[in-house]
Design brief:
With about 140 residues, the chain is an alpha+beta fold. About 25% of the residues lie in helices and about 35% in strands. Strand 2 and strand 3 form a beta hairpin. The chain is globular and about 40 Å long.
Length: about 140
């Protein structure tokens, strides 16, 4: 694995696929390509509106590959992502029909709060609740 190249790419699968969120966190919206991560499932985290991914044979997660992620970006991303639920891990995704190494924020299913699991509803991204959540992020200086 080319560690340097891997560390410049993020596989995003939830709120960071929304340009307004990525711009708020990274202060820009990086170049992206569509991507799929095999062997994982996007799930709901109890008590919060955003998803995580966990290992799950036979499943896959559609998302975006964010390119050109630098050291300062990773610092902002680590602050944005809740380390209680997430660990940054190297993953192999498929983008433009080719395998690509990237980093993703991944959870251990057993470490999630009780009541977590099940399919995360992407429609939340178009709801008033999403706008309220985004306003709270802005007010907290994310």
């Amino acid at each position: 694995m080319d560690t340097n190249a891997t560390e410049t790419r993020l596989f995003a699968y939830g709120t960071l696929t929304v340009p307004r969120v990525a711009h708020l966190v990274l202060e820009r919206f990086p170049d992206t390509t569509a991507a799929t991560l095999e062997g994982y499932q996007r799930v709901r985290i109890a008590g919060v509106p955003y998803p995580t991914i966990v290992r799950c044979d036979g499943s896959s997660v559609e998302g975006l590959l964010l390119h050109g992620i630098g050291r300062a970006d990773w610092q902002r991303l680590d602050q944005f992502e809740d380390d209680v639920f997430y660990q940054r891990q190297a993953v192999c995704i498929v983008s433009r029909g080719q395998p690509v190494q990237a980093l993703a924020y991944v959870s251990d299913r057993d470490a999630l709060p009780p009541g977590s699991g099940g399919v995360w509803d992407r429609r939340w991204l178009e709801s008033a609740g999403f706008d309220e959540w985004l306003d709270r992020l802005k007010n907290n200086g994310v």
